[in-house]
Amino acid sequence: MTIEPSVETDDRDVHLAGDATWWRQAAVYQIYPRSFADADGDGIGDIAGITDRVPYLRDLGIDAVWLSPFYPSELADGGYDVADYRDVDPRLGTLADFDRMLRALHRVGIRVIVDIVPNHSSDRHEWFQAALAADPGSPERARYIFRDGRGPDGAEPPTDWESAFGGPAWERVADGQWYFHNFAVEQPDFDWSNREVREDFLTTLRFWSDRGVDGFRIDVAHMLTKDLTEPLPMRAELAEIPIDGRHPITDRDDVHEVYAEWRQVFDSYDPPRTAVAEAWVARDRRQRYASAEGLGQAFNFDLLEADFDAAQFRAIVADNIDLAESSGSSTTWVLSNHDVVRHATRYGLPDPDRAPDGRPTLKHGNEWLLSKGKSPRLDREQGLRRARAATLFVLGLPGSAYLYQGEELGLHEVVEIDGRDRQDPTYFRSPGVDIGRDGCRVPLPWTREGESFGFGAGGAHLPQPAWFGAASVEAEEEDPHSTLVLYRAALALRHELQSAEHLEWIETGDDDVLSFSRPGGWEIVTNFGDQSYDLRGAEVLIASAEIVGGSLPPAATAWIARME
Ligand code: NOJ
Predict the structure, then answer these.
(1) pLDDT at 88 over 80
(2) What is the 3-class SS of 409-467, one letter each residue?
(3) Which of 189, 214, 240 is the last residue of a domain?
(4) Ligand 1: which atom is nearest the Cα of residue 183?
(5) pTM
(6) Are residues 359 and 466 in the same domain?
(7) Is 29 within the bounds of a domain?
(8) Per-residue confidence at 431, pLDDT binned at 50, 70, 90?
(9) Given ligand 1 and candidates 219, 278, 405, which is best to mutate, with the most ligand atoms within 8 Å of its CB?
(10) How far is the CA of 339 from the centre of ligand 1 (A)?
(11) Which terminus of the chain faces fewer neighbouring Cβ atoms within 10 Å, N or C?
């Protein structure tokens, strides 16, 4: 599928051709704006920095970018604490800068997805400030979740619930009431039974759609609606309530009424605006978010929690293709994002790696090990080999591939961040338990040397390690074997070969080797084992590691064509 910009001028918006299905098999590149490129030299990446790098994004060969929040924010949670949903953070630019960036991306055929954070706002949002200034029981408080406390003088929180970032989920305000925050204290949850809240988000969706954005990524899509009728259960009781659509705070069936309204907004545009749900829900409930009457697509995070293991990969792929078919959506694949340890590092940790209590810890790449800051057992080379193999496997699958900035450089997680430089609230709210997510959010290295490795003229807001120079765009562009060169070649080839959303498994006779074909005779082979695998004379189109003597080495993927 090629996307041709229909207008090529500087001063008018460039609308991409009206293909309503562009998202189904898109390669979407996630930009974490504060850490991508800093045009004004204040140490924080910005919108103009993205515009400057449009040629880089074009050459990478992606179909769309997803921008993590760039809205005004106190950065209590890396921008997921939004103070104004319809503006750009002044440190990152202006709406005019945003429009310029959007045009520049559209002009090279790249669509733009923005992040919508509807579960909670920032405590600096004007509505929350108004709620604090207003009385208990006021309409201003009714947009959020305020309750009286328990015990004498209401000095105890309404429940003993914990926030997802650690610590209590209720915070007391000056007049003695408490408000609910599922995440950081600075992120009060909205009350989605409030019509004003619903209307305001419809306005936000139209605001960005009118500016020309192509789609939305919906943060914590499963938590918006809640039933907080009193008496509220305590934590132990809450944990016993089945998550079957009627749970008080998560994955409630009535959340889909919200998305049905959103769908009407999406479908009022041509082409319809798209959406992808970030919904951490049980397997059999995920597709509700991906339905055509709802958001249309949902992230599948199963590979984030899997080992580099043929049986696990095969089961996950088969299962998710079935699931997507059941909702009419397409599958999504994610190996890295701004919330998890980079996959090059995850795959370099002992396999499977477990915390002392036996819990699998791969989701966050073994917080237990990384929190020691030394990772004594991390095998970086093996991690990168496997990461390249896993990426090439995923890019061969039907459906959308969501890539995270820096993975195209094969970046490892940065563990060398001093406590006093850390920013992530998960680190501060769970001392000694969770190292936090800063290690995958370190500003990108663009050049081998120089101030912040080319990120900007004013340093980097998180410290970059010395090894970033060798992993920079400049260094990798010059190395034909680099991960950047591999990603560019793979994405270009994927465009050429991309075919119907279907795969056929090919039995390889080796439990450690997975292979499948795509319509059109394109075959993907991944060797998860530690012995080479004979490709039996196939023509190799691209490989994640050197093919020696017609064999696929351990921890490698090849895309092949069979000679007739
Ligand atoms: C999910 C986002 O990906 C994460 O970064 C954020 O901290 C939480 N939602 C809360 O908004």
Answers:
(1) yes
(2) HCCCCCCCCCHHHCCCHHHHHCCCCCCCCHHHCCCCCCCCCCHHHHCCCCCCCCCCCHH
(3) 189
(4) 10
(5) 0.95
(6) yes
(7) yes
(8) low
(9) 219
(10) 7
(11) C
